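Progress report, Aim 2. The chain analyzed during this reporting quarter is listed below.
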Amino acid sequence: MKNRWFDSFLNVGVTPDLDAFDANCIRAMNRFGFYGTIASCIGISYGFFLEDTASSNLSTIIFPFLVSILLLNRFQKNLLAIFLGFVAFSIIIAFFSIKNGEDSAIHFLFSTAIISLTLFYRKEKSIRYFFSSMAVILIAAIVVALNFNYNWQLFPQNSELYFLFQRRLIYFVLLLSSVLLTFILVYSYKKNNKFLENALEEQQTLLAELNHRVKNNMAIIISLLNMQKNRTDNLETQGALQDVHDRVMSMALVHQKMYKKQNISIIELAPYITELIAEIRNSIDIKKNITFNTEIEPIQLDISTTIPLGLILNELITNAIKHAFPSKLNPEIFISLKKVDESHFEVLVFDNGIGSLPPHTPKSNGLGLRLIESLTEQINGKCEFASNNGLRFKLIAPIRKSKN
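Predicted structure tokens for the chain:
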């Protein structure tokens, strides 16, 4: 019953929508505020009964800070709660350093406080809390240094504190607390890091499964298009359904590649284009023996660039197969992909066909050309057509860096 009550208290302010890091921060500050409030109440009572004014004043000063931590955590203001915790911690370190004298070396705990800051502050908006905490620690350290330098008697000094045994005891307590705090920080860091690794692995698995399902759904659409195409005798309808089939197939290939890869955020273009060409040739009844020549550098692109690029290549290759070679003896289609520089790539597609029949020319108003221009704008690229011993297409677009 006691553990349940304490656990429920530690989880005050923790909601299911919080990520693990924020939830752990709230629990840690709840624990700090709880124990600190109890210690502060004991200190106030100790000073009240024994008339130790210094201890009573310190407990009275930090008491509102500790209570505020508990209240702020309840409303998920954990960054501000952490900041107030460091303020209270700095006041305590400065107080005991000044009261116990320079030989106590308790002021060295300031370095531990600075190290621990890096494990709490991680959000963009927390930068002001980080520098505010650093400023509080710096001010407290300056006050301690000035007291030691000018021998300010802010608190009554007890000569017994300068005995060798007591100085060694203080050093031992300082060392033990530093080691203990370091262990807690390292353990918390490893625990959070392990959770993030597991969360990342789970996310990758879910994304892979999502790509697998998208690929399966597109395969069903492709099958439905094939069934519908086989049920009609209208050649124009068959051609339109075949065009849609090829476009869906080029997108399905991307998700298939992503599902098979361990890094699901990028696509290797060389095997993708090779498989795309094979799928287009299989889907179209080619009576001519068309030769495909490819020069593809090992370039990796993200899905937002690969899908539009695949659709563009699908339109160009399909149109070349259907319209470029009405009577050509040795038809050829050349496809090149290479890096222009570190931030741009270039795609070249040209054939040795007639290069002037619609809808295989830039003068055409067909859907294929409008789709190519729209997809080029989508990837922030520039394209141009030229008719010189066949139709030539050139595309230059930026290489988007993967965010994974």
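Confidence is low (pLDDT under 50) at residues 357-365. The chain is about 65% helix and 10% strand. These observations will guide the mutagenesis work planned for the next reporting period.
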